[in-house]
Amino acid sequence: MANNLLKGKKGIIFGALDEKSIAWKVAVRAKEEGAEFVLTNAPIAMRMGEINKLAEQCNAQIIPADATSVEDLENLFTKAQEILGGKIDFILHSIGSSPNIRKGKSYGDLNYDWFQKTLDISGLSFHKVMHVAEKQDALNEWGSVVALSYIAAQRVFPDYTDMSHAKALLESIARNYGYRLGRMKKVRVNTISQSPTKTTAGTGVGGFDAFYDYADKMSPLGNASAEDCANYTISLFSDLTRMVTMQNLMHDGGFSSMGISEDIVDMISK
Ligand SMILES: NC(=O)c1ccc[n+]([C@@H]2O[C@H](COP(=O)([O-])OP(=O)(O)OC[C@H]3O[C@@H](n4cnc5c(N)ncnc54)[C@H](O)[C@@H]3O)[C@@H](O)[C@H]2O)c1
């Protein structure tokens, strides 16, 4: 259901890889709600070509940028403002990757060069995005910046290895940059801590199917889907949430408040 919640707003959406991506769903919903935006992803992800379909569907241009490169981000913000004809109202950071997880390294056997890459891609890049936006004075007042996190930032999920530290960094950056941008431009910065979701990044984590089912059985509402996450994100980009900032917002069907559920008890008792 479209309500023109983002009518007249301009944005940058990072991280749409394919139809399953959370960023893809956000782009589709943002378009439905009347926003104009540019899409961006790492040059290497462009090779898949899927993002071109989304660009066509949303009448959006694509500007490649490796989110770890300040130079790429400077080019992205300059071009985005040219294309959209003004400053930016919303940014979605939907980026995550861990070479250690991709290569199946356990927590006790992490490669430290890859660990730093994980932190750079999945955590520090969020700081770089806001740093470049600040330097270019690219954000409109009452803008909204959202990044996607996972509960492993705060609780132990052994297979999430170095990504758990990247997410803790991400959530800390949201608080600290949220303070800064709030004072400077009334811009809010939040992270959404999303349920396990069947995407390329999600299913790449060891044991994904088990913790997807576990979370689903623990949560009174079940797991939040990528579509649900897109709806929540749209609400955070809209003017209905102007005073929400520096928060890590649980979007998990109730999972984070649970101790144990009857479904899990039944499963273990069998
Ligand atoms: N899927 C889940 O279970 C889940 C749960 C909670 C949070 N999240 C988070 O949601 C976000 C989006 O992931 P997704 O699940 O939609 O998976 P996805 O694989 O579709 O998206 C991840 C994106 O990160 C991009 N990326 C990787 N390296 C990059 C770089 N250097 N520069 C720019 N972009 C880069 C990829 O190209 C891809 O588009 C991530 O932050 C992820 O950690 C996912």
Automatic annotation (TrEMBL):
The UniProt record lists the EC number as: 1.3.1.9
What keywords appear on the UniProt entry?
Answer: Fatty acid biosynthesis, Fatty acid metabolism, Lipid biosynthesis, Lipid metabolism, NAD, Oxidoreductase
Q: What class of enzyme is it?
A: oxidoreductase
Please name one Pfam family that this protein belongs to. Answer: adh_short_C2
Q: Which InterPro entries match?
A: Enoyl-ACP_Rdtase_NADH, NAD(P)-bd_dom_sf, SDR_fam
The protein's matches in Gene3D superfamilies, at most eight in alphabetical order, are given as: NAD(P)-binding Rossmann-like Domain
Q: What is this protein called?
A: Enoyl-[acyl-carrier-protein] reductase [NADH]
Species in which this protein is naturally found: Pontibacter chinhatensis
In the record, what lineage is assigned to the organism producing the protein? Bacteria, Pseudomonadati, Bacteroidota, Cytophagia, Cytophagales
